[in-house]
TrEMBL record:
Protein's name according to its UniProt entry: Calponin-homology (CH) domain-containing protein
Organism: Lasius platythorax
Keywords: Actin-binding, Repeat
Source lineage: Eukaryota, Metazoa, Ecdysozoa, Arthropoda, Hexapoda
Gene Ontology MF: a single term: actin filament binding
Domain (Calponin-homology (CH)): residue spans on this chain: 34-136
Keyword flag Methyltransferase: no
Entry's Gene Ontology BP terms: actin cytoskeleton organization
Any Pfam family: CH
InterPro entries hit by this protein: Actinin_actin-bd_CS, CH_dom, CH_dom_sf, Filamin
Length: 136
């Protein structure tokens, strides 16, 4: 084995080690996210009991804005501005989420890295509904 072969073997070994470390970090991050998501879902459901609402899947159930509006109304003890009670179109769902986020902003609550147009979540929710009959 010459020097070039040894060098390539060391580089491949280092890359494999780096890939394994990256995969472990992703797995730990995913587990932490699931824990946070489950914790928030339980917390939100405790508050939503007051208005007989429930969140089963956090991303899916908040995507149309209705449960988000309800949660904010329970927490703030205020009624939010007019919103779509039966949103069917994406634009109506986005409008509901925008109403909720605007209300929080007007109340002086700073929201970071959240907007109403998260299409990735919407598409993921649609896929979950098709697979597991996720309720809206």
């Amino acid at each position: 084995m010459n020097e070039n072969d040894k060098s390539v073997k060391c580089e491949n070994s280092a890359e494999e080690e780096e890939d394994e470390m990256f995969e472990r970090e992703l797995a730990e991050d995913a587990q932490w996210k699931r824990i946070q998501q489950n914790t928030f879902t339980r917390w939100a459901n405790e508050r939503l009991k007051a208005v007989n609402k429930h969140i089963g899947d956090l991303e899916c159930d908040l995507s149309d804005g209705l449960r988000l509006v309800s949660l904010i109304e329970v927490l703030s003890q205020k009624r939010l501005p007019k919103h779509n009670q039966r949103p069917t179109f994406r634009s109506q769902k986005l409008e509901n989420v925008s109403v909720a986020l605007k209300f929080l902003e007007d109340e002086g609550i700073r929201i970071v890295n959240i907007d109403s147009g998260s299409t990735a979540i919407e598409h993921e929710c649609i896929e979950r509904r098709n697979k597991s009959d996720c309720r809206a």
